[in-house]
Amino acid sequence: MAFELKQSLKLTQQLLMTPQLQQAIKLLQLSRQELEQFVASQVAENPCLEEDMVESPEEAAQVERERERTEEQVISESIQQAGSLVDSAGGEGESGELDWEALNRYQEQAPASTTAAKKIADEELPNYENMISKVGTLQDHLLTQIGELDFDEQELKIASLLIGNIDDRGYLTISIDELAEAESLDLEQVDGILDTIQRLDPNGVGARDLKECLHLQLRNSHLKNGIVELIVENHLRELENRNFAAIAKAMQISLEEVLDNVHIIADLEPVPGRQFGATEAQFITPDVYVFKLGSEWVVNLNEDGLPKLRVSDFYSTMMSDKKSKGDEKNYVAEKMKAAEWLIKSIRQRQRTIFKVTESIVKRQRDFFDHGVEYLKPMILKDVAEDISMHESTISRVTNNKYVHTPRGVFELKYFFNSSVSRADGQDMASESVKRMISDLVKVEDARRPLSDQRIVEILEERGIQLARRTVAKYREQLQILPSSKRKKYF
To answer: What are phi and psi of 448, to 5 degrees?
Structure first.
């Protein structure tokens, strides 16, 4: 058999995404804070891109008047804005706009690893609060107290090193032997400074494990006695599992004595740094507002804080100047094109968020009118078909985007829930069932908490059919302990 080399031409079709469409997709999945940071970086890098600043006193006065508008005026005006926005959003295939049909075709033909694998598990959606507040850090609190003590320079150095190795929970994360060796310090002096820190507020801070933390609190609060100390020292596992009978048997005392001392331990704090919080302040700025005007729910985009961009007049004039050189013109032309596409991409992002939110409000009207118990089952495909977009586009739009409603601030993903069957043939959202489980646990008898099986039976009486393992899964998602650990003996 003979082999030979040949050249041939072959015509094939390959689906590619333009850089502009890639940028639009990137902007869709950014949170509001990330978008603001991205825009700021683009303004700094692209000389043709600038913010449309208010310059004249008349414009400044107009802005101030806008800020003073009442909520009712904002709602009324948003109706007209909504109508015009929907009209403009409908022309996505027109010249100059982004080709979302191309995106839909791309996503439909993309490999499963890039689409199906990224679909969210609709029933695993958490609740969200509007804001996590922040107090001073635990380390700052300890250093302030140390500063009030009569420490010399060396003692202050050791105290600062120890406090720097205390985590947000309030536990010391390094052994004093390691610290003394690493910093060439006297071990006995380090131990003495640690003892001082362990007597500061919050009670139990500076412990190396849970056992020491509880012992420190008992000592500092003058609550220690023989029985309670022995329980902490030898029976933490039984204490965790609420096996009080085993503790009584091992210590050869009555169950009543065990319960009396367990009551003391229950009032202690296993995480001394909890009150200071382990997270930085997280403020959620809603991307969109939903108001009720009369009998109708109105969607209004939140444009506050988003920079209004425009292409620089200076560089636009330069492009029309015949004296400009070829290289200069090419550079400016490239930057102007990038600026124009960024502005269009941001507009398209806002329009898409509006359309998705409007579709959600339309389908979840009962939730907005009556509350979470009336949340309907809904999946990404429902909204995707409603506004003629791909499911993965809806997933990007709803990720890290928040809506402010009269019932609170929610991530848009919150409204997507799997269905739970009812005896009457109608389905309800899994989030509504979770709320029922939470409400049942809140009013249960603490001495006889509801087991998962009992919750199944109560839900069945209400026409909701769930397996026990499903109830257990929902309970865990709600961070509710099993009945054996919820039971109270005193």
So the answer is: -135, 70
